[in-house]
Design brief:
alpha+beta, Pnp Oxidase, Chain A
């Protein structure tokens, strides 16, 4: 992973997570049925914002959430997810952001320690620690030039 991507991940703290939500799951997230293939009309996207800490060793974003939330229930069923992280600016030359494809998992003990080291106050709240294993990322930093993008592909 390019050092500029790592630096960006360390300086930010909020990600937007997006997970698949097949139409039939709008009604019943508890169903243990095997899901059939979906048409585009039957698939929705559900998003949630989460504070994260970056696990640089495993290229993972670690976050805390409650198991009953819709985004966690859906990510558990459909672990191929996406996320974005971006700075908040109106100046085109200062735009920085990352588009991510990831695999949702439960966090390891080491990842929990990374998360609580960054957000010690989070120990007070309910929830469990999860991780997004980054499989692909595209980094935009307009300060490097409007057409310059850095990419990361995790080797299988």
């Amino acid at each position: 992973m390019h050092p500029a991507i790592k630096d960006f991940l360390h300086t930010q703290h909020l990600l937007a997570l997006s997970v698949l939500q097949p139409y039939r799951d709008l009604q019943t997230l508890d169903s243990q049925e095997v899901c059939e293939p979906h048409t585009l009309d039957s698939v929705w996207i559900h998003s949630a914002n989460c504070f994260y800490a970056f696990d640089e060793t495993n290229y993972a974003l670690v976050f805390k959430s409650e198991p009953h939330t819709r985004h966690i229930q859906l990510a558990t069923r459909y672990p191929n997810v996406s996320a974005t992280i971006a700075t908040n600016t109106l100046k085109i030359a200062k735009i920085k952001g990352l588009q991510i494809q990831a695999r949702f998992t439960t966090a390891t003990q080491t990842q929990e320690e990374i998360y609580y080291a960054r957000f010690p106050f989070a120990r007070l709240g309910a929830g469990e620690i999860y991780a997004l294993e980054i499989l692909y990322a595209k980094y935009t930093n307009n300060a490097l030039g409007l057409s310059k993008k850095l990419e990361f592909h995790k080797n299988p």
